[in-house]
Every structure is written in structure tokens, then in C-alpha cells.
Amino acid sequence: MNKGSVVIIMLLVALCFSCLSDQQKKVQADEQAIKKLEQLDMTSIDRYPLFDNCDEMLTTADCFYEQLHALVQQKLSNGEILIHLARKDSMYLSITVSKEGRITYDSLYKSAPRIDKDYMHELLQKRLNNFPVIKSAQKKSIPVATTYRLPIVFNPVDSLEH
After folding, report:
1. What's the burial of 127, exposed, middle or buried (CB within 10 Å: 0-12/13-18/19+)?
2. Residue pair 49/135 in contact by the 8 Å Cβ criterion
3. d(CA 147, CA 65)
4. Residue 144: beta bridge partners?
5. What are the two backbone dihedrals, phi and then psi, of residue 92, each rounded to the nearest 5 degrees?
6. Are 115 and 89 a contacting pair, CB within 8 Å?
7. Residue 66: left (phi > 0), alpha (psi -120 to 50), or beta?
8. What phi, psi does 90 have (nearest 5°)?
């Protein structure tokens, strides 16, 4: 064999072993995707949900929380809530915004011991419905579902009169 044919054979052998099969390429792509997914921070979002009157250019949560609080306050202020309080008290609601932008009351997350949890949960289920559909939160430009804990403060009726 001459030098030229040895070089050509070596190049062909190197080419055959250096090329990846379709299966190997798929495995490598899957491994890279898994690594990127593991590095993705799923505890934060890139954009909070948006109500129609919130500025989309602002990425802060302020407008979302203000609008959500106002909406919940409006729904809870329709009619009396019969609880007896000697002093100011609070509770936390768990509210979800689906990736389709639907707002739902999930549960009473935490409340003061003086508040009847069963009564409040039932009342909240009745009143906190028919929310408007909004733009959902986003992560990497993909709509995602998010859950929020919303504080609600109750003032005794007597303290409002002073």
C-alpha cells in the first residue's frame, strides 16, 4: 500500500467513528435538555399575571396584587360576614391563576385561632368566584400557573365607628 491509500483509509475510519448515529444525537440532545431543565429556576416567574388595566411594560407585582386585593375586597364586602372579633385579626387565602388566566380560590391557608376556619372556607368558596380572566404569569415566554397567598385583615365593627 502506498502512503496515499493509507491516509485515505485512516480518514475514512476516523470519519466513521467520529460521526454520531441518529440515536446518539437524540441521546445527547435529551441529556442537554435535562441539564437545562435542571438549571431552570422554577421558583420564580419572568412576568406576573396581568389585569387589563395593568401596564404590561412594568414587571413588578404591585399592580397585580393591588388589583387582586381590590377584587377580593369587593367580593367579600357584598353582604355581612358574621364573625365576632374583639380585635383586628387576619387570615391568608391561597389563590391560583391558571396558565389560561383563570383565577380561583383554593383554600384558607392560615387564619387566626379565633376565626372559624370551616365557616370562613365555606363563605370564601361562595363569594370568591366569577373572577375575570386575565393574562397568566410567564416563564421563558410560556404561560404558567401560579399560586399566591393573599392576606385578608378583619377589623371589628366597633373599631370602625371611632
Report:
1. middle
2. yes
3. 12
4. 137
5. -120, 130
6. yes
7. alpha
8. -145, 170
Each residue's pLDDT tens digit, 36-54: 766 666 677 888 898 888 8
Cell numbers for 129, please give them: 368566584
Within the chain, where are the H helices? Answer: 3-18, 22-39, 62-76, 117-127, 157-161
- For the full predicted model, state whether its pTM sits above 0.85: no
**Can you list the positions of beta strands (E) in 44-102?**
89-97
Cβ(154)–Cβ(77) below 8 Å:
no
The predicted-structure confidence for 84-139, as pLDDT tens digits, reads as follows 666 677 788 899 999 999 999 998 877 777 777 888 888 888 888 899 999 999 88
Q: What gap in Å lies between CA 111 and CA 93, rounded to an integer? A: 9
User: Residue written as cell 387566626?
Assistant: 112
CA 142 to chain CA mean position, Å: 11
Cell reading at 15: 470519519
**Largest alpha-carbon pair distance within the chain?**
108
CB 67, CB 80: distance < 8 Å: no
